[in-house]
Design goal:
- The two termini are about 25 Å apart.
- By secondary structure, the protein is an alpha/beta fold.
- Helix 6 packs across helix 11.
- The model has no long low-confidence stretch (mean pLDDT about 90).
- The protein contains 11 helices and 11 strands.
- Strands 8-7-9-10-11 form a 5-stranded parallel sheet. A 4-stranded mixed sheet has the order 3-4-6-5, sandwiched between helices. The protein has a two-stranded antiparallel sheet with strand order 1-2.
């Protein structure tokens, strides 16, 4: 029973407040021994629980995937390997896998994607993280414009797509090396910019730390920064902003 259904039953007087409280306690999560699935998350936050696939035991991944699919009719998994894809595909032939972003998913048919965000990368090496952001946002119902390889070493490439970027409700800037793209975009658009540092770069990049520090210390306004290589977090936050812009 969903939260709305429980409240409707209380309003009609068919169940007591005490019984409703017990139902909500029972339905807040599902105990699986090795995992506690947050089956009420979508009711609370508007986003169903997502599977972080890396390092999960095969049996655990399959059972969690199955339970979440039965709950919502769709599932999103991040950081999945080819081996995990083949494992899940044996039980769910309809599952889709993107080896670039490492996204593993079953999407509900006929899903509408609304609003608009722009996902931009400094270089092509940043695309795996950008695709994790873009496909996460799309899974959660957001329309995405991809604008790749527009880093500061060739600023004219960015300016040629600026009209499209400025039309978005939110901009995701994905960059490694020194991470300057987020600052440039922050000074050019009126929308929030979510900066995603990547671990792309040479030795003094320190596996993304240099880009992270550049983005955190940006003098441009309206920039929020997620963790290194955290495309999922950026796509999630961008969807929240997009929904707010649409009044949802």
């Amino acid at each position: 029973m969903t939260l709305q259904q429980v409240l409707e039953e209380v309003q009609k007087g068919t169940i007591s407040v005490q019984d409703a409280e017990q139902l909500l306690r029972e339905n807040s999560y599902e105990e699986m021994g090795y995992a506690k699935l947050d089956t009420s998350r979508k009711e609370r936050t508007g986003f169903a629980e997502v599977i972080y696939c890396s390092n999960k035991a095969d049996e655990h991944l399959l059972k969690i995937f199955d339970r979440l699919y039965r709950e919502d009719g769709e599932v999103l998994g991040t950081r999945a390997s080819e081996k995990q894809y083949e494992l899940v595909k044996a039980s769910f032939p309809q599952v889709k896998y993107d080896p670039v972003s490492r996204i593993l998913k079953i999407e509900a048919p006929g899903k509408e994607r609304v609003g608009k965000i722009a996902v931009c990368t400094a270089g092509t090496a940043d695309i795996p993280v950008a695709e994790e952001a873009a496909q996460t946002a799309e899974f959660f119902g957001t329309a995405v414009d991809r604008i790749y390889d527009v880093g500061v070493s060739g600023m004219h490439r960015l300016f040629s797509r600026l009209d499209t970027i400025q039309e978005a409700n939110c901009v995701v800037a994905v960059a490694g090396m020194e991470g300057a793209l987020a600052s440039v975009l922050g000074g050019l658009v009126s929308r929030p910019v979510i900066a995603v540092p990547t671990s792309v770069g040479y030795g003094a990049n320190f596996h993304g730390l240099s880009a992270l520090l550049t983005m955190v210390n940006s003098c441009a306004n309206g920039i929020a920064v997620v963790n290194i290589d955290n495309g999922y977090g950026a796509g999630y936050l961008a969807t929240q902003i997009n929904r707010l812009a649409l009044g949802k």
